[in-house]
Design a protein that fits this description.
261 residues; mainly alpha; 11 helices
Length: 261
């Protein structure tokens, strides 16, 4: 997956700068430390107030995640791996999968496969994996919620910054030139609030939710595959079960590859 977050952020910045030039607004007007302090500092302060320190410490990691491609493997590749594992299990027994566990990097996948190899009850394996998935989803929701709240606070703080700026502008009523500059500076806070809220915070939240959806889909596919291995399903049956997790266009490519083989 391409780094669409970086593309979006760059396009957002360029749009504002180019738009200001086209509208005849001076770029120098953005040199307003007070507006940045009110919007950026105020938003971060609100997030600290509404969240725990542990949650706030995760924010830099979440920002990095938004700029990275999902840490998942292609579903077609995962399907082929499960077919291979089922072939080994039917030919040599479920214990033979021990040799393949060390080749798997995903801790979730490795945990499920180890439980199957250890002969644990299928219902227990399903409960453990479902619980782990639920905890992961909750953690993802909390991360996205921080950015959603940031997107809610920033525009409101922009209005607050504009009010503060207008209060300052009222002190320059005798000087029309200073008054004009003060009013323009006041609305920079509104610009920053709306920009950061709707171009940074909320899109980041949406990206995190999208990444979570992709990862959850992969984990559900893994759960289904692990339980199918434990049930002793044939490679054909496992392929049919897991194919539902693969988009139609990728299914067509898989079928074409199979026909060529």
């Amino acid at each position: 997956m391409q780094n669409t977050t970086a593309i979006g952020v760059v396009l957002g910045v360029l749009s504002v700068f180019v738009g200001m030039v086209l509208k005849g607004a001076p770029i120098s007007a953005l040199n307003n430390p007070a507006a940045f302090l009110i919007i950026i500092g105020g938003t971060v302060a609100c997030l600290f107030t509404g969240h725990t320190m542990e949650q706030m410490k995760r924010m830099p990691t979440l920002i990095k995640m938004a700029f990275k491609a999902p840490n998942t493997r292609p579903k077609a590749e995962l399907l082929k791996l499960f077919i291979e594992l089922s072939q080994i299990a039917r030919r040599e027994g479920i214990l033979a999968l021990e040799n393949k566990v060390n080749e798997i990097e995903d801790p979730f996948f490795k945990t499920g496969l180890n439980m199957v190899i250890d002969g644990m009850d299928p219902e227990f394996v399903s409960d453990v994996l479902d619980a782990e998935l639920e905890v992961m989803e909750q953690r993802h929701r909390e991360g996205a919620a921080m950015f959603i709240q940031g997107g809610t606070y920033a525009p409101t703080l922009g209005v607050l910054g504009a009010v503060i700026g207008l209060v300052a502008a009222l002190g320059n009523l005798n000087d029309i030139e200073k008054l004009g500059h003060s009013i323009a500076a006041a609305f920079i806070a509104t610009l920053l609030g709306i920009y950061t809220g709707y171009v940074i915070w909320l899109p980041f939240a949406n990206k995190l939710k999208m990444l979570s959806t992709v990862e959850v889909a992969e984990k559900r596919m893994i759960i289904e595959g692990v339980l199918s291995l434990q049930a002793g399903d044939s490679p054909t049956a496992i392929e049919a079960k897991l194919m539902v997790f693969i988009p139609q266009n990728e299914r067509d490519l898989l079928k074409a590859d199979k026909e060529r083989e």
